[in-house]
Amino acid sequence: MSKTLEASIDVAAPPEKVWAVVSDLKRMGEWSPQCRKMKVFGGDVRKGTTTLNINRKGFLVWPTTAKVIEFAPNKSIAFRIVENKMIWSYTLTPTASGTTVVEKREAPNGTSAISRFLIDKALGGTEQLDVELVDGMNKTLQRIKAASEHG
């Protein structure tokens, strides 16, 4: 089973403003260093929405698909990657000065055999990838912070 990865940041903006940024999955390519694009199907994002994602690491480019499994406006959004069963989520908590945003990657039911093989053979192994993903989460959150506070 893959371990849970997590990063958080404090944003000097109310949850409603941060939510407008976080829940706009079409803009994920602006925030994430690995997920370069998310194409949202079916109009507005809500529980059940599906996406096609284009991911990149160096010269490697690969598609994935996702389904939104949690959607609580101004509070949380989560989507499951179909191919590897990973769940990515963003949780917003109001604070006295704005909002704390937590990004997580979880695999409560483990991951697929093909995903484990590709992580080992093409993405540098689990330990290296986990470090890169947490670094990417921190970059993503910095970009979400900047867009929420100044955008």
Characterization of this structure:
With 151 residues, this protein is of the alpha+beta class. It has a single domain (5-150), classed as START domain (Alpha-D-Glucose-1,6-Bisphosphate, Chain A, domain 4). It is 30% helix and 39% strand. It has 4 helices and 7 strands; from the N terminus they run βααββββββαα. It has helices at 15-22, 28-31, 113-121, 126-150; strands at residues 5-11, 35-41, 50-57, 60-72, 76-81, 87-95, 98-106. A 7-stranded antiparallel beta sheet has the order 1-7-6-5-4-3-2. Helix 1 crosses helix 4. The radius of gyration is 15 Å and the shape is globular.
User: What's the CATH architecture?
Assistant: 2-Layer Sandwich
Main sheet: strand order: 1-7-6-5-4-3-2
Class computed from helices, strands and strand pairing: alpha+beta
The major beta sheet can be summarized as: 7 strands, antiparallel
Work out the radius of gyration: 15 Å
Could you estimate the helical fraction of the residues in percent? 25-40%
Per the CATH scheme, the topology name is: Alpha-D-Glucose-1,6-Bisphosphate, Chain A, domain 4
Helix and strand element order: EHHEEEEEEHH
What's the CATH class label? Answer: Alpha Beta
How much beta, percentage-wise? 35-45%
- Note the total helix count: 4
Distance between the termini: 38 Å
What's the CATH H-level superfamily name? START domain
Tally of separate domains: 1
Count of extended strands:
7
